[in-house]
Amino acid sequence: MALETTGDAAVLNAATRIAGNTRANVKGLWFFAVLWNVVSAPVLVYIPPELARQPLAALGFVFPIAGAGLIAWALVTTARSRRFGATWLDATRGPARPGSPWHAAVMARLPQPASGDGYTVSLKLTCLQRTISRSRDDSSERERILWREETEIDSSRIAFGGEQAAIPVRFDIPADALVTTAVGKGEGVLWVLTAEAALPGVNLKEDFDVPVRRTAGDDVKPAPPAIAATPAAIVSVDDLARSGITVQPAPGGMTFRYARMRNVPFAVGITAFTALWTGALWVQIYLGFPWFFPIVTGLFDLLLGVITLELWLGTTTVTAAAGELRVHHTLLGIGGTRVIAAADVASIELHIGMQTQGRYGTPYYDLRARLKSGRKRTLGSGVRNKRHAEWLAAQMRASVGLK
After folding, report:
1. Which of 73, 85, 185, 196 is the most exposed, having the fewest neighbouring CB atoms within 10 Å of its CB?
2. Helix, strand or coil for residue 205?
């Protein structure tokens, strides 16, 4: 992450009590859900008589179906807000700063588990780049994950008492972290802490906007070593095998095999999107659109098809040994091998390749060899677990003698 600063005093003003976003979003979500359903309701009256004459009119049912989904979402969010109360982030121990450990506590109305019946809270600290695309009549927002760290807190470590329970938060902020630049709902860099837990009834799912600032006089130092990993975070070869990555010894090094169909949920989502895109192409052809539109749509459809096949059927084998990296990739039995001399490699790093969108999205990590020439070569992609990706990168570095 590149070093940045911001002069916006409002952004840099560290809050010590940061309210959760769930309760604040309930009214807006209900307003949007009701408005959507009011606008789309006439579809249920006017579309059915048109189906016999024009079957494509059935596409109009997408709008009331989406409206039903919005109502369900609003109901769940309301139930979550009522169950966990006015959640907030206690940041009185100090603001989040690059190159320093950050301590805080999530305050929420959590159930105290009975003896031997605990649960786990997942905490994720994410740096996002928010962009807003504006057109004449509308605008759309996108939050892209730039960096994330996550940890799990067992309920035995939560302080229960009174109306609120305190979930301890501790993260090491990278020394070269981007600072907060997004003001309100505007564009820029923002940091978000999310807390999730599977509980009987409604699950905990809350997020907090965390200002990250760099003050005058701060020394830019590397972040201290991370806290000791919990047993659940320790990486084993069996853990990797369950995620579809096989690690085996090879003469003078190790072999890493990335199996097909390792990320089924993501592949299903891309497949569904590709099917919708293909449907749009068919509609353009059926309605006789000018040739330019089906050609452009068809080219994107072809690209989406290749990506879909790669997610379902692509395999990669990386052998790190004898002073070189050998990368063999195949798709539908077709592929080739690239050989990279270890002497040409400057570093082996992680890169977020694909991701589901937003602060609750999932990043998938690529392993990349950065060559001394400045070029990059992929050594495996789509690793869901960051700890797994870090372990793989460390093993590859050790196998070819890199620090």
Report:
1. 185
2. strand
